[in-house]
Amino acid sequence: MKHYEFHVIDDEDGIVIYDESDDYFPGDGRIFDGTDELDMDYILEYEKQQEARKAAELRHQRWISAGVIACVILYIALVTYIAF
Q: Hey, is 30 helix, strand or coil?
């Protein structure tokens, strides 16, 4: 089990517990330490990757749909051929 460090910060309203794992971005595999700034190039590159991922998933779904339709047509044709 991974050990996480907790920093206790006293505030006017009470005690705030800070967990460093809250700053973890799973997409790039690193911990964001607050000094890194997201620049426009990074945002645009991320948007391109997401659009490419969506387009690939859409192509995949279209192939599956076409395969299912073709299989249903072949099954109906086979049953019709055997029955009549």
A: strand
User: Tokens representing 33?
Assistant: 């330490």
Strand partners, 31: 24
Residue indicated by tokens 């971005």: 25
pLDDT of 84 strictly over 50: yes
Identity of the residue numbered 13: D
Amino acid sitting at position 43: I
| Measured distance CA(42)–CA(48) in Å, rounded | 10
Is pTM beyond 0.70? Reply is no
As given in the structure block, the two tokens for residue 45 are 């590159």
Token representation of residue 39: 């620049």
